[in-house]
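in:
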């Protein structure tokens, strides 16, 4: 075909075909006139917190909902002073088979249940007066942490639960099984064991991790919905379950992506988790479980140059933007499973509303959409804008855009400005498009009164 004919054909096809962005661009829609019931903050840390490090100005803005660990790895007094619930992991003080000293020298708990009972009672005696969530054993389905059978774990749980209530009374709050990954068969088995033997489970707990070398956010919201239905709303066996805790989330491969961090928090909140914590891993040779970096949200302490200590990473900023609007959420939807968003009528103050969006990799979703790409345009539809008290009667709104790039382990002084627009309000809302949103990053849309 002659070159001129080819060019004419291409032009004709372009004229009749819809633009790619119109056909493929995801849509995020927020309605500020549709408030949601307040939910607790899903920010939480596993260990990685001392009595003084990191400084309060790096922790307070995150509105921690949970601190999980041991007194030496995450002090109780510091955690509760920050407004967080405190989870104590009993197994970490006893010992695990894969540690440098197997079982901490105590042997398997199921081999000497009397010794295990005495250990739990002593821990309970030391904690009198404290409000603690008691996590009996960490990841009993992982050979590094537990070498026994599932039934031996169930009995280990039962002995600990009975010992805690014997010392602390019926109000002691006990959770399990804190499995590595989502394993409904472990939850059902523990419930059946306790139903038959007279123990109580106050909260079911597990870790949302996709497995060795896995990446992408699992369908956390679906898991939470299913477990609430099966064990709280209409339990197969009633053993007192009233809360669901995802006390570790986000795999090692995704730990430094702001999009995945924001998306994980959004799914935890949407699914109705009662408490959650970020998982900790090794980052650039530093163990983020024990370097007081809030599980890698911050850079490590630099003794030679204190000004470089505990600097925010991109994931810290994504966490802060999530936390800004806790308790003030409004309805938000997304047309793509990999685009995850939260919207708040007040974030961080009464004269600012915010939508925070993360473009994240997903895993195990029931209805996967098109494959993730390097970048996409994103349409943002904001409705109910004039329902915001500071914009009632307004004709225009100022929209400020921020981009939180996926900068990995490097510090990020602050999110990048992506411009400010003044938009006319039509029928109570405004529309805009975010151009070139990249996989793994997060964007922030702030609504202010137009000057």
């Amino acid at each position: 075909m002659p070159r001129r004919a080819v060019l004419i054909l291409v032009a004709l096809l372009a004229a009749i075909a819809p633009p790619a962005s119109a056909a493929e661009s995801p849509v995020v829609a927020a309605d500020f006139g549709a408030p949601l019931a307040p939910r607790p903050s899903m920010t939480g840390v596993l260990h990685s917190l001392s009595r003084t490090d990191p400084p309060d100005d790096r922790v307070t803005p995150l509105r921690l909902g949970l601190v999980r660990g041991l007194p030496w790895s995450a002090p109780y007094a510091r955690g509760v002073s920050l407004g967080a619930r405190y989870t104590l992991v009993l197994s970490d003080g006893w010992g695990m088979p894969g540690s440098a000293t197997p079982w901490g020298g105590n042997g398997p708990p199921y081999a000497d249940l009397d010794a295990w009972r005495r250990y739990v009672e002593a821990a309970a005696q030391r904690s009198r007066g404290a409000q603690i969530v008691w996590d009996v054993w960490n990841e009993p389905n992982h050979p590094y942490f537990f070498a026994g059978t599932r039934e031996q774990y169930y009995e280990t749980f039962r002995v600990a639960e009975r010992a805690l209530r014997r010392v602390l009374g019926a109000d002691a709050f006990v959770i399990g099984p804190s499995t590595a990954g989502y394993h409904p068969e472990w939850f059902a088995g523990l419930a059946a064991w306790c139903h038959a033997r007279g123990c109580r489970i106050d909260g079911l707990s597990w870790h949302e991790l996709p497995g060795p070398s896995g990446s992408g956010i699992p369908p956390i919201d679906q898991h939470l919905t299913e477990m609430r239905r099966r064990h709280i709303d209409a339990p197969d066996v009633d053993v007192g379950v009233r809360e669901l805790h995802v006390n570790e989330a986000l795999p090692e491969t995704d730990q430094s992506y702001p999009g995945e961090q924001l998306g994980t928090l959004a799914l935890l909140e949407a699914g109705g988790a009662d408490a959650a914590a970020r998982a900790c891993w090794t980052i650039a040779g530093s163990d983020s479980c024990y370097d007081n970096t809030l599980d890698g949200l911050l850079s490590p302490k630099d003794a030679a140059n204190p000004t470089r200590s505990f600097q925010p990473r991109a994931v810290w900023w994504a966490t802060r933007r999530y936390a800004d609007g806790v308790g003030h959420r409004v309805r938000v939807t997304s047309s793509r499973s990999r685009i995850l968003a939260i919207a708040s009528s007040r974030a961080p103050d009464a004269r600012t509303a915010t939508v925070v969006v993360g473009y994240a990799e997903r895993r195990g979703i029931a209805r996967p959409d098109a494959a993730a790409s390097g970048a996409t345009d994103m349409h943002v539809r904001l409705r109910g804008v004039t329902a915001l008290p500071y914009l009632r009667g307004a004709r225009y709104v100022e929209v400020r855009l921020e981009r939180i790039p996926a900068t990995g382990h490097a510090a990020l002084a602050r999110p990048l400005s992506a411009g400010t627009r003044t938009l006319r309000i039509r029928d109570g809302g405004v529309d805009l498009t975010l151009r070139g949103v990249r996989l793994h990053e997060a964007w922030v849309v702030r609504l202010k009164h137009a000057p």
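note: The first helix runs from residue 3 to 16.
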